[in-house]
Design brief:
mainly alpha, 17 helices, 81% helix, globular
C-alpha cells in the first residue's frame, strides 16, 4: 500500500495549521484594531458566507480522492461545471439574504456588506480543482501552494483593510482577498487546463455523492455556528466576540485535524478498505484521535482563560467553567473525525449527517437557556452534550463499515 512521505505529511499538516493560525491572527488583529463590538459584527459576516459555502458543499475535493476515475480529465471537467453552478447559486442566495439579515440584526452589518459577500462563492466556484488530483498520489505541494498562498493573501490584506475601513467591513475585504488568491493560484499551479462540462448524468452522480455531505455540512453549520447566532440574538456583540473567540480557539485543533485527515487519512482508508486490511489500521487511527481529543480538552481548560486575556485583552477572557466545557466539546469533535473519514471512504456519505443530527438537536436546549437568560456556560454545556451524542452515534454507524465488506458500487 502506498503512503505519504514525511514531506507530504508535513505539508498536509502545515497547510491547515497555517489556515487556522491565520484565522486566529485575523480575529486577534480585529479585536485590537476595530474593538470587540465591531469584531462581533465581523464574525457575523464570516458566519454568513460560511453557511452558504457549507450548505452547498457537495464534496468535489473528496470525490476526486475517493472515485476510481478521480484522475480522469472528464471527471475534473464535470466537477468544474458543478462547482460553477454552486458558486452562482451561492452568490444569488447571499444577495437575496442580504436585506433579511440586515433587518434581523438592526445594529449589525448593512445589507450592502452581506450582498458583497456574494463575490466569495462566485470566485471560489471558478477555481481549477486540478491541484486536488495530486493528493491521490500523496503529493501535497500543489494544495499547499493554492491554500497556503490564499491564506497568506488574506493575512496581507488585514492591515490595509482595517486602516482604510476601520470597522467590520475589513472582514469582507479579507474574505474576498482570500477568494481572489484561491482562484488565481489554482489556475497557476494546474497541469490541466480549466475545462467545463455539464451533463445530467455527471451532475446526478455528483449530487448522489455530495447531497448527504451537503446535508451534513448544514448540520455542521448548526452545530458549529448556530449557537453563535443564538448568542448574538440573546446577548450583545461583545459577548458574541467572547464566545466566538473561545470556540474558535478550542475548535482550531479540531479543524486542523479534520483537514489533515481529509488529505492523509481518507486516501489511506480508501486503499485499505479495497484491500481488506481495514481492521489492521483502524484501532491505531482511533487511538491517536482519542489521545488528541483528550489532550485538547485538558489543555484548553487549563490554558485558555489566561492565554485569551493575554492575547485579546481581559475583556474577552472566558471564565474557567466556560473554558472547560468548550474544551470537552472540541475534544469530542476531534474524536469523531476518523469516523467521518471512514464513512466517506466507504461510500456511506450519509453517516456523518446521521451522527451530526444529534449534535444539532442540542440547539434546542441552548436556545432555551439563552432565552431564559442563563450564562454562556449553559449554552456551551448543551453543545458539549450534543458533541458527545454525535460521536457515540458515529461510532455505532461505523460498525457497519468495519463488520461488513464495502461494496465496490460505493466507489462508482
Amino acid at each position: 500500500m502506498s503512503a505519504p512521505t514525511n514531506t507530504g505529511r508535513a505539508l498536509a499538516w502545515a497547510v491547515p495549521v497555517l489556515a487556522e493560525a491565520a484565522a486566529l491572527g485575523r480575529s486577534v488583529a480585529f479585536a485590537w484594531w476595530i474593538g470587540p463590538d465591531e469584531l462581533g459584527r465581523a464574525m457575523m459576516l464570516a458566519l454568513t458566507v460560511r453557511l452558504v459555502e457549507m450548505a452547498s458543499d457537495v464534496g468535489a475535493d473528496r470525490l476526486i480522492l475517493q472515485a476510481p476515475d478521480g484522475n480522469s480529465a472528464r471527471l475534473l471537467a464535470d466537477l468544474h461545471g458543478a462547482m460553477l453552478i454552486r458558486g452562482i447559486a451561492g452568490a444569488a442566495i447571499l444577495v437575496c439574504l442580504a436585506p433579511i439579515l440586515a433587518g434581523l440584526f438592526a445594529d449589525g452589518p448593512a445589507w450592502t456588506s452581506y450582498a458583497l459577500l456574494a463575490a466569495v462563492p462566485l470566485l471560489r466556484g471558478a477555481a481549477n480543482l486540478d491541484f486536488r488530483r495530486s493528493e491521490r498520489r500523496f503529493r501535497y505541494a500543489p494544495m499547499a501552494l493554492v491554500e497556503g498562498g490564499a491564506t497568506l493573501a488574506m493575512v496581507v490584506s488585514i492591515l490595509p483593510a482595517s486602516a482604510m475601513l476601520g470597522d467590520h467591513r475589513a472582514m469582507l475585504a479579507a474574505l474576498i482577498a482570500h477568494a481572489v488568491a484561491c482562484l488565481g493560484l489554482s489556475r497557476l499551479v494546474a497541469t490541466r487546463a480549466y475545462r467545463l462540462r455539464f451533463s445530467r448524468a455527471s451532475l446526478r452522480r455528483i449530487w448522489r455523492f455530495g447531497a448527504p455531505l451537503a446535508m451534513n455540512a448544514v448540520l455542521l453549520f448548526l452545530t458549529f455556528y448556530a449557537d453563535r447566532l443564538i448568542v448574538a440574538r440573546a446577548y450583545d456583540w461583545a459577548t458574541l466576540a467572547l464566545y466566538g473567540i473561545a470556540l474558535q480557539l478550542a475548535l482550531l485543533p479540531a479543524q486542523i485535524v479534520g483537514r489533515a485527515a481529509a488529505s492523509l487519512v481518507l486516501p489511506q482508508l480508501r486503499e485499505v478498505i479495497r484491500s481488506g486490511t481495514l481492521a489492521e489500521v483502524w484501532p491505531r487511527i482511533v487511538a491517536s484521535h482519542a489521545a488528541l481529543g483528550l489532550g485538547l480538552a485538558a489543555g484548553f481548560a487549563l490554558i485558555a482563560p489566561a492565554a485569551i486575556a493575554l492575547v485579546y485583552g481581559d475583556a474577552l477572557r472566558p471564565d474557567p467553567a466556560l473554558a472547560l466545557v468548550i474544551g470537552i466539546a472540541a475534544g469530542f469533535r476531534v474524536l469523531r473525525t476518523p469516523f467521518s473519514q471512514l464513512a466517506i471512504a466507504s461510500g456511506r456519505t450519509g453517516d456523518p449527517a446521521r451522527a451530526n443530527l444529534l449534535r444539532s438537536l442540542a440547539l434546542l436546549p441552548a436556545a432555551g437557556f439563552a432565552a431564559a437568560g442563563f450564562p454562556l456556560v449553559a449554552i456551551a454545556a448543551a453543545a458539549a452534550a450534543g458533541e458527545a451524542g454525535a460521536t457515540l452515534r458515529a461510532w455505532l454507524l461505523a460498525r457497519a463499515s468495519l463488520i461488513r465488506p464495502t461494496s465496490q458500487e460505493a466507489f462508482a
